[in-house]
Amino acid sequence: MFIPAVGCFKWWPGGSIGGSRIVTPDVPFSVEDLTSDHIFYVQDSQYKTQAKQDIFSFYISDGHSQTEAFNVEIDIQQSKEDREPVVSVSSIHVEENSGVVITNSSLSVLDQDTPENEILFTIIRKPSYGKLRRRQFYSQPLENGRVLTQGSTFTYQDVLDQLLVYTPETISGGA
Fold it and tell me: What superkingdom does the record give (predicted)?
């Protein structure tokens, strides 16, 4: 039997779920194992985002003679969860005359195949009663940094690095 390059077939001997073994040419399996769903394919996580196809070959033997080799192609499709980013947002609370760092607890993105520094947010509406800023360093005061306006962008890495902040407009009582 040919072992796939980006995954492996596993076998639950006798259907026992306690321990599975990798199928190799030295460890044959029966037709009953196959029809009882004791043989299954597991993709190697090292190749999870790169591999689109795998193949395995096998032959059938009755102990005395064997058939020619058969090839089975496996098309690996990304799951819906892997293709679509998952975005989670929650309200941010800020006191007057203060400010707040926007963290991944209020703006979170899970995208399996895109690095955080390549996930790009574009502002389509700026805040009406304050300013959204992107600081250069997380240690800078909240009032520092480039003000983000409509059309401005920032990355998810900026959020993770605590560079994105919101400060409300100061309310003054006179003219």
Answer: Eukaryota
pLDDT in tens, 63-99: 888 888 888 788 777 665 556 778 888 888 888 888 9
d(CA 80, CA 78): 6
Name the one residue in this structure whose structure tokens are 């959020």.
159
Question: Rounded to an integer, what distance in angstroms lies between the CA atom of residue 145 and that of residue 1?
Answer: 61
Q: Using an 8 Å Cβ cutoff, are 109 and 85 in contact?
A: yes
The pLDDT score that the predictor gives to residue 163 is 97
Q: CA 80 to CA 135: how far, in whole Å? A: 35
Sign, CA torsion 62/63/68/72: positive
> For the chain, give me the number of helices (H) and strands (E)?
3, 13
